[in-house]
Amino acid sequence: MADWDDMIDCEGLLCPLPVLKARKRLMALASGTVLCVRATDAMAAIDLPHFCTEAGHTYLGSEAEGTVTLHLIQRG
Fold first, then answer.
1. Active site residue 15
2. Residues 10, 15, 36, 52: which is the catalytic one?
3. Domains defined along the chain, listed by start
């Protein structure tokens, strides 16, 4: 999986909190920066790509790491 520049831990948080936390963190990052969102909520796999499409960011994919899924987002 690709490297990232910043990470937020959303383990144990349910929808919509991973998206809200990602949105807040992305607003503080420079364009092109890659954010890793660590999430355990299965809905994040649907919500984060949808959020990226709506907000102009690029969803780079995800990778399972035990019970946690790492989601990579490049700020638009």
1. yes
2. 15
3. 6-74 (3.30.110.40)
